[in-house]
Amino acid sequence: MDLLGALRIHRLVAIVRGDDPDAALATVLALVEEGISLVEVSLSGRDALGVISRARTALGPDAPLGAGTVLGADDAHAAHEAGADFIVTPAVSDGIAVAKDLGLPVLAGVMTPTDILSALRLGADALKIFPAAQAGGPAYLRALRGPFPDLPFVPVGGVDAAAAREYLAQGAVAVGVGSPLIGDAAHGGSVDGLRTRARVFLDVVGVERNPK
Question: Is 40 a known active-site residue?
């Protein structure tokens, strides 16, 4: 898939991490139904590979579906086998190069300018500033865009609706959002609440919701 193109169009990556695999799957499907096209299932969630595999079956072969918290080569291989078609890492690791060898685009976790250059050398398609809030928020993104004005940054970590709006105004190609969007849905909480939050974030990033 063209991950960078999809980030530019959709501007939002939903991060699903849950301790209830059935609820996590329902969360993925509800997000897609609401119009959030880029969904990442974190491998740190319970039976995450099973969730990815079941979501791939439910969504069909063409829907973007990512695996997150890919820490290394083994995770990249497992995510590929489960049906993920893009990879998200929390840091620079050998998982980036392995994923690229498998034909999977990568949103690579970075914090520093050194991380950025290392991730690019390994073939990263886009750069996940993580944890963005702790790094300095939108001001840090603005600082990074001084030496790296044309790179595709995706802030992740502590991104609520207000922060998402500010990051995008500062030039982020997209934002990654976990708990401010997902809430407790992936642990068995309210899917109706999830849908309401999804609509809020879609409005923030300027993407049209799916018609009902």
Answer: yes
pLDDT tens for 138-192 read 999 999 999 999 999 999 999 999 999 999 999 999 999 999 999 999 999 999 9
Catalytic site residue 100? no
Look at residue 179 and give its three-state secondary structure.
helix
Residue 54: which residues within 8 A CB-CB, separation 6 or more? Answer: 25
Q: How far apart are CA 182 and CA 175, in angstroms?
A: 14
In a 10 Å sphere around its CB, with 0-12 CB exposed, 13-18 middle and 19+ buried, how is residue 212 labelled? exposed
Catalytic residue among 33, 34, 40, 166: 40
What pTM was computed for the model? 0.97
- Candidates 100, 128, 166, 208; catalytic one: 128
Contact status, residue 130 vs residue 154, Cβ threshold 8 Å:
no
